[in-house]
Amino acid sequence: MQNELVQYTLRLGDNALILGQRLTEWCGHGPILEQDIALSNMALDQLGQARMLLQYAAQLKGEGSTEDALAFFRQEGEFRNLLLLELENGDWGKTIARQFLFDTFNYFQYTALLQSEDETLRAIAQKAIKEVTYHAQWSAEWVIRLGDGTDESHKRIQEAVDSLWEWANEMFVADAVDELMLEKGIGVNLTEIHALWEEKVAQVLAMATLQMPAETWAQTGGKQGDHTESLGFLLAEMQSLPRTYPEAKW
Fold first, then answer.
1. Distance of alpha carbon 126 from its chain centroid, rounded?
2. pLDDT tier at 99 (50, 70, 90 boundaries)?
3. How many Å separate Cα 62 from the centre of its chain?
4. Which residue from 1, 93, 134, 218 puts its CA 20 to 30 A from 142's CA?
5. Does residue 190 fall inside a structural domain?
């Protein structure tokens, strides 16, 4: 079970790390100063969560593994993040749609992890839940603001939700790792979370005067290490400094 726990923890940590890296790309480019700062702070929240999770994964792996080694010296196929989170940001509407779809899922996921049988994951969830809750509220409010705004903002956010729907479905596709972690009381029940997620998403989209996309197939593979080309470019930028100067000290 040790290997499955490592993989499960890496999935949580990689989701936070890769999303945090994507959000940093908005720094200095937000539509208004307040939201520029908001996304930068959310990126820091994600990186803080990533640190805790990758520290735990490194501890579980042993053999001299560290959080920095996991973040900066793994190859693309060794990352276990959801595909949704590695996609390029796109315009403001697409970034907001991605945040909303994932943040809503993450809220229910971390709420469930508060009951995890794994003491460390439970403690991380307890520390992160306030940030995760704020992120979910923030992105939902922006979906409503864009959907019920101008004709142009309505059009863009609807297109963004439609285009990301198949990528979001990967969040609920359970594999052997998810099933074992659920069986041991460590992980979450993705079927239950899917129902909660759909209810909340439908509620927010209705308030935003947006249409909920029809069910479609899921783009999968991220949790098993099969990624889009977007992740390779992201890692090349994120890992360039420590790979060039691996012995550098601040």
1. 17
2. very high
3. 25
4. 218
5. yes
Domain count for the chain: 1
Residues 168-202 have pLDDT tens digits of 999 999 999 999 999 999 999 999 999 999 999 99
Q: How far apart are CA 188 and CA 179, in angstroms?
A: 9
Q: What is the CATH number of the domain that holds 231?
A: 1.20.1260.10
Range of the domain at 154: 2-244
Cα–Cα distance for residue pair 235/18, rounded to 1 Å: 9
Domain assignment present for residue 183? The answer is yes
Cα separation, 205 vs 211, whole angstroms = 7
**250 inside domain:** no
pLDDT at 50 over 90: yes
Tokens of 93: 């509407």
Of 43, 50, 144, whose CA–CA distance to 97 is shortest?
144
Distance of CA 239 to the CA centre of its chain: 19
Asked whether residue 236 is assigned to any structural domain, the reply reads yes
Residues 6 or more apart whose CB falls under 8 angstroms from that of 37 comprise 30
pTM greater than the 0.90 cutoff: yes
- Token couple for 194: 């899917």
CA atoms within 13 A on the CB side of 156: 16
Calpha distance 110→30 (Å, rounded): 28
Q: CA angle, 75 as apex, 44 and 66 as ends, to 5°?
A: 55
